[in-house]
Structure formats: C-alpha cells, structure tokens
Write a structure and sequence with these properties.
The complex is a heterodimer of chains A (about 290) and B (about 350). Chain A starts with a helix and ends in a 14-residue tail after the last helix. Chain A contains 11 helices and 2 strands. Chain A has one domain (about 1-115, about 130-275): ABC transporter involved in vitamin B12 uptake, BtuC (Orthogonal Bundle), CATH 1.10.3470. In chain A, strands 1-2 form a two-stranded antiparallel sheet. With about 290 residues, chain A is mostly helical. Chain B has one domain (about 45-290): ABC transporter involved in vitamin B12 uptake, BtuC. Chain B has 14 helices and 4 strands. In chain B, the strands form 2 sheets. Chain B has a two-stranded antiparallel sheet. Chain B has a two-stranded antiparallel ribbon with strand order 2-3. Chain B is globular. Chain B starts with a helix and ends with a helix. Classes of the chains: A mainly alpha (about 290), B mainly alpha (about 350). The interface of A and B includes residues 103, 114, 224, 225 and 270 of A.
Chain lengths: ~290, ~350
C-alpha cells in the first residue's frame, strides 16, 4: 500500500512539475504568477486533439504541432498584453494573467463546448509492476517524458547562451541589460518556454484524464503550491516540491479519503508560508516581492 | 501682502471644502436613487433581488479594496471570508432563529476575528506568496464547509424567512437592509481612509520599510487591515446567505467568488471609494446580460479586464472621475492665479 501510494504519487507529481517549473521560470523573470499557465496547456491539449482527429496526424506530429501552438500563444501573450504593462505593480501583472485565463477559458468553451471529451490516443491500461508496486503504462511514459524535459532544461540553463542569459535576467535585470543582454527578448523567450512546458503538460495529461476547458485548473493550483515550496525562484526546488505534493496528496487520498487531496496540498502551503515564507529551498532574492 | 496670500489660501480651502460637499451630495443622491429603485413603477420583486446581489458584491469588493487597494496586499481568498460570514449567520438563524441584523453583525465579527488570525499567520508574506497563501485559505475553508458535518456540505442548509426587528421582510425589504449595510460600510471606509489608520495602510502599501521607519506599527496595521477587510466581506457573506435563504458548499466552497471580488476591485479601481461600486455592477451584470452566452461572458470579462489594466490602470472609476478632477484642478488653479494677480 505505502509503496504503491508513493509511486503513483511520484507519477502525478511529475506532471505537476511541468507546470510548477513553468510558473517558476515566468515568475523569476517577470515577477508574475501566471494564472493562464494551465490554460496554455489546455489549449495545447485541444490543439493536439484536433491535429489527431481532424487532420489525421500521428501522436508525435500532433505533440510537435501543439508545442508550436503553445509557444506562439505564450509569445503573443507577452507581446500583446504583458509588455505594455511591464513596468506596472504586481497586482496589475497578476490580474492581467487572470484576464488571459478568462479569455482562454471562454474561447475553449465557445469553440469546443464545455463537455469533457476523451483524448483520441490512449495508452495500454494494463499496469506494469515496478519495484513491487503497480503503475499504468501511460504514467510510466509520462514520467519518462518529464524526466527528459527536466534534463533538457538542465542542459539549456547550463550550457546555452540563451539559458545563461535567462539566469542573468533572473539575478538582476538592470545589470543584465547593462551587460548587453537583450532583456526584452529574453523575457519573450521566457514566455515561449512557458508555452513549451504547457504543451507537454497538456498533451501528456490528456490521455490520462480527459480534454475540457477546466481540465488543468487543479493541476495549475498544485503547480503553484509546488513552485512556492521551492521558494518560487528555484527550478529543482519546484520539481522536488511537485513530487512531494504528488506523494503527500496521494497519501492523504489513500489514508483519509479522496476529499482531502486538494486540501492537503493547501494545508501544507499554509503551514509552510507561516513558518518559512521564503519556501523550503529558496532564498528570496528580490526582497520587494 | 501677507493678508492677500492668506485670503487666496482661504479661498482654496473653501473651494476644497465645497468639492467635498459636492462629493457627499453626489453619494447621498446616489443612495437615495438606489433606495427609491424598488418603489419605481415597473420594477418587480426579482429585480430587487438582483439589485441586492449587486449590493452584496459591492460590499464584498469594498472589503477586498481595503486590503488590496489601500494596504497593497493582493488577496485571492476573500471567498473564504464570504463563506465564514454566510455560515455564521446561517447557523445562528437555523439553531436560534436570530434576527437578520444580529446575523449580519455576527457574520462580520466572526470573519473579522478569523481575518485577524490569518493576518498574524501571513504576517511575513507579500506579493505572489500572499496571493497563493490566501488562495490556500479559501480552499481550506471550502474543504471544511464540504466535510465538517455541522455545515451539511453539498446538501446545504435551508433557512427560515428573514426577520428584521421582529418583522418579516420580502425581497424589497431585504434590498433596503442590504443598501443600509452598504451605506454604513461606505461611511465607515470613507472615515477610515481619511483617518490616520487609512494613511498608515497606504504608507505600508507604498513602502513597508519607509512606513516602518516613520513609526508605523506594521504588525498592528497589517492585522488591523486584514480583520477590517475580512469583517466587511463577512457582512456581505451574511447577506448572501439570506438572499435566497439557503447556504450550501456547492456555492460557498467555490473559489470563483474570491477571484470575482478581486476582478471587481481591479476593474472598478482598487484604491478609490467608487471603485467597488463600478466593479460590483460590472461583475454581476455581465453574466446577467450574457446568460445564454456563458463562454462569451468569460471572454468579455477577460478582455475588459486586460483592456482596463493596459489603458486605465486606475480602474473604470478613475476614468469616470478624470473630467471632474480636471475641472476641479482648473478651478483651483484659476483661484490661485487671481490670488497672484492681486
């Protein structure tokens, strides 16, 4: 029972991690909690569904095109909405992403309806045994994808020019600009990365649950909680936070009852914020936020 | 020479006094018109109900504006205080059959006390952390309401008819009660904002460090802002329970209340007296007019929100107030110039 709960918790946590990392990446370069992150993913899932169903593409082609769609969406959002208000206070930036949330929710409901739809590609439902616990095929594949993306991010931030520039903007945007880093381009790239991660979060989750405008709402909230666990600045912290929340809520679901799943994540966050406001791992760098 | 300058100054002060009187007259006229609304010909009971709903949203948004607009702490959790106010009043009315007035006061007090406690718990948070913390609080309240037996979860609690001072009241009576509450909260917030306490809130908003070094007690005023803000939203909650005489977790555990109040505050104008009024009307009337087109209502809300943020960061009330403010500034300037000429 225990091992089983831990393993399936890690599987869910891996999906939360994609959203949590996107929240962190956007937050540390723009000071914004992106409420539309889940809806980027939802649009990605819908896009993939259309590519498969209506255009007859295979899963991988659809995934690639969904990535393109979401990256475009992220960049467009930065250019059209976030850039004109980039110098505003925190409340303005935050509510602007809320506006985007409303718009994307409405657009999805308008075009595709509010009912839940099954994703056209499903995985083999027979569970596989891993170190004494059972796990479904789909979860295992998703964990593989998530790990691959994590490795890719690590390489990106460590070795590429853009990745290093992105970290420089995180540390201090003014100094970065003085050093000749195109800060605005980097911020745009950040939103593009948020779209990239969202596409994977959406398309990987869709076969396990369903496709609907509100499919990502709960995942998004868990993603925030995970991001705050890591102190909102640390990517490894966010990943670890996501895995912890996945496991903890699965434990609560297993031992207390499934009502308590979401509440567990929030009870954890309220306790954490009361005693360690900077998160478990993070040193809050820019004190004013 | 001296006498002339001071006469110009006295003139300016008198003019400012006059402007304040105009403001008060405008607000009183607005309330009088609102009070007369249900007695106008052609207005039916359900319209009074709808109007009460707007009033409730305005009160709730006023609560949010104290914390978010004046003290600068973004809250996404005031739906939790709405639920606390609603259930306090509902349980009192169910078990003791108390008067609506007592229910409203008790709902406000209970929310205020819990708001005080939450203010202490989140003492060190701000910005994004505060937003997520308050969101967590709203979820926590939702879970409690859903699962603790006394709140009867999704079954809900049906309440007896509303009684005020021993009299049974209908939709119109309820509207009058809500409007009275709104009048009192508006008066209270006006006094608060123009007092030393309000200035302390705004000083904390503009810079916590600067405020503290000027002797503003951060602990005191932060928790005070939290509890006042929560109490006002709690009053709205108590009213919201009695508007349909029914409370259930289906409604009050919903996170969307919290978000709606924040949107109402921001769209209206978060640090203006009239902001919550404009925002409350907006947030209730958009779904009302677009009832058949729920998805379009979502898009519309989002577009208006983003448009307001980009084009009018002070909110719609700020835009509406701009011509009046410009006219007043011109008058003041003209007065000063005649003072100079003399």
């Amino acid at each position: 029972m225990f091992g089983q709960l831990v393993l399936s918790g890690i599987a869910t946590g891996a999906l939360y991690a994609l959203t949590a990392v996107a929240v962190v990446v956007v937050f540390r370069n723009t000071r914004t909690i992106n409420l539309a992150q889940g809806d980027f993913a939802m649009i990605g899932a819908f896009a993939a569904m259309i590519f498969i169903k209506d255009l007859g593409l295979n899963y991988y082609m659809a995934l690639a095109l969904a990535v393109v769609t979401c990256v475009t969406l992220g960049i467009a959002f930065e250019r059209l909405v976030m850039r004109p208000i980039a110098d505003s206070d925190w409340l303005t930036l935050f509510t602007a992403t809320l506006g985007m949330y409303y718009v994307l929710h409405g657009v999805a409901g308008w075009f595709w309806g509010r009912d839940t739809k099954a994703f056209p590609v499903t995985f083999d439902p027979t569970p596989i045994e891993v170190v004494g616990a059972l796990i479904s095929h789909g979860h295992l594949i998703n964990m593989g994808w998530a790990a691959g993306i994590g490795l890719m991010l690590f390489l990106f931030f460590r070795y590429t020019k853009q990745g290093i520039a992105m970290r420089a903007v995180t540390d201090d945007p003014d100094t970065a600009m003085l050093m000749g880093i195109p800060v605005r381009f980097i911020v745009m790239l950040t939103w593009g990365m948020a779209g990239f991660l969202a596409a994977f979060a959406g398309v990987l989750l869709a076969p396990i649950v369903y496709v609907a405008p509100e499919m990502m709402d709960e995942v998004l909230i868990k993603g925030y909680v995970a991001a705050v666990f890591g102190g909102l600045y640390s990517i490894p912290g966010a990943i670890l936070g996501a895995l912890m929340i996945g496991v903890a809520e699965n434990m609560a679901g297993g031992y207390l009852g499934s009502h308590y799943k979401t509440a567990t994540a929030f009870a954890m966050i309220v306790v954490l914020l009361a005693f360690r406001p900077q998160g478990l791992f993070g040193i809050q760098k820019r004190r004013e936020f | 020479m001296h006498a002339k300058v001071s006469s110009a100054q006295a003139g300016a002060a008198a003019l400012k006094q006059a402007f304040r009187r105009h403001n008060i007259a405008a607000v009183v006229a607005m309330f009088a018109a609102a009070l007369a609304f249900p007695f106008m010909p052609g207005v039916e009971g359900w319209m009074a109900s709808q109007a009460s709903l707007i009033v409730i949203y305005i009160i709730a948004a006023q609560g949010v504006s104290i914390l978010t607009g004046y003290t600068g702490l973004v809250t996404v959790g005031h739906g939790g205080f709405l639920a606390i106010g609603a259930y306090t009043s509902a349980l009192l009315s169910k078990f003791f059959g108390v008067d609506l007035v007592i229910g409203i006061v008790a709902g406000g007090l209970m929310a205020g006390v819990i708001g005080f406690a939450l203010g202490l718990v989140f003492l060190r948070l701000s910005g994004a952390f505060m937003a997520i913390g308050t969101l967590g609080f709203a979820f926590f309240v939702g879970t409690v309401v859903n699962n603790v037996p006394i709140f009867e979860g999704r079954e809900g609690i049906s309440l007896p008819d509303n009684r005020v001072l021993g009299m049974e009241i209908g939709d119109v009576g309820f509207y009058v009660v809500s409007l009275t509450c709104l009048g009192l909260t508006t008066l209270f917030i006006y006094r608060l904002v123009h007092s030393g306490v309000g200035r302390a809130f705004m000083a904390l908003r503009d810079s916590e460090r600067a405020a503290e070094s000027s002797g503003v007690n951060r602990l005191l005023f932060r928790t005070l802002s939290f509890s006042v803000s929560a109490a006002i939203t709690g009053i709205a909650g108590a009213l919201n329970a009695h508007i349909v005489n029914y409370v259930s977790a289906e409604v009050f555990a919903d996170i969307w209340y919290s978000v709606d109040f924040l949107v109402a505050t921001v769209v209206g104008g978060s640090a203006m007296m009239m902001g919550p009024f404009v925002g409350g009307v907006f947030i209730v009337m958009v779904p009302f007019f677009l009832e058949e087109l729920a998805d379009f209502a979502f898009i519309f809300k989002g577009v208006v929100l983003i448009g307001v943020l980009i084009l009018a960061p002070a909110g719609i009330a700020g835009v509406l107030a701009r011509p009046v403010q410009a006219w007043r500034a011109r008058k003041l300037k003209a007065l000063q110039q005649t003072g100079d000429a003399e």
